[in-house]
Write a structure and sequence with these properties.
This protein is mainly beta and about 160 residues long. It has one domain (about 45-160): Fimbrial-type adhesion domain (Immunoglobulin-like), CATH 2.60.40.1090. About 10% of the residues lie in helices and about 35% in strands. It is built from 1 helix and 8 strands; from the N terminus they run αββββββββ. β4 and β5 (about 105-110) form a beta hairpin. It starts with a helix and ends with a strand.
Length: about 160
């Protein structure tokens, strides 16, 4: 084979391989689309179980016994919320009571450590969501335990409104 034919074949093969690797396009067209999501505000008061308020074992002569618990709320960032504590199952004339049969003992729940802000349905605790769990303390006071001996209890519900 002559050198000229070999060069011609190499050039021809090189040109064909370039066409196979880099196709030639005549034109192009494009379209756009959106990527969407609709985020709704939410608050979750179940992110942690609310521990019981437990005054423990006290003498019937005890007074101003204090206890504490806490609840947690997780709300969408920037979402305003209010948390109310129900009156309990043994409320009378706005006073919460724990009961043992027909016997009752008064108590109250507060949103502040100074026990000056009763926490109930008419005095909510307000806040703004951060996107993370926010822990709120519950302060409790048993003003007097001068009732018959026994185990007393009440059930209170916590509600977040947003």
């Amino acid at each position: 084979m002559s050198a000229f034919k070999i060069k011609k074949s190499v050039i021809l093969l090189s040109g064909l391989s370039l066409l196979a690797v880099n196709p030639v396009f005549a034109d192009s067209d494009s379209a756009s689309f959106q990527v969407k999501v609709n985020i709704v505000a939410t608050c979750d008061i179940h992110s942690q179980q609310i521990p019981d308020v437990d005054f423990g074992t006290v003498s019937s002569t005890a007074s101003n016994v204090v206890a504490q618990s806490q609840l947690a709320v997780n709300c969408t960032p920037g979402t305003s919320y209010q948390i109310t504590l129900g009156d309990g199952t043994h409320v009378a004339a706005g006073q919460r009571y724990m009961a043992n049969g027909d016997q009752t003992v008064p108590y109250n729940l507060y949103s502040d450590q100074a026990h000056s802000k009763i926490w109930n349905t008419t005095n909510p605790v307000a806040g703004k969501g951060s996107g993370s769990k926010q822990v709120l303390p519950i302060y409790a006071v048993l003003p007097a335990a001068n009732v018959p001996a026994g185990s007393y209890s009440d059930t209170v519900s916590a509600t977040v409104t947003y």
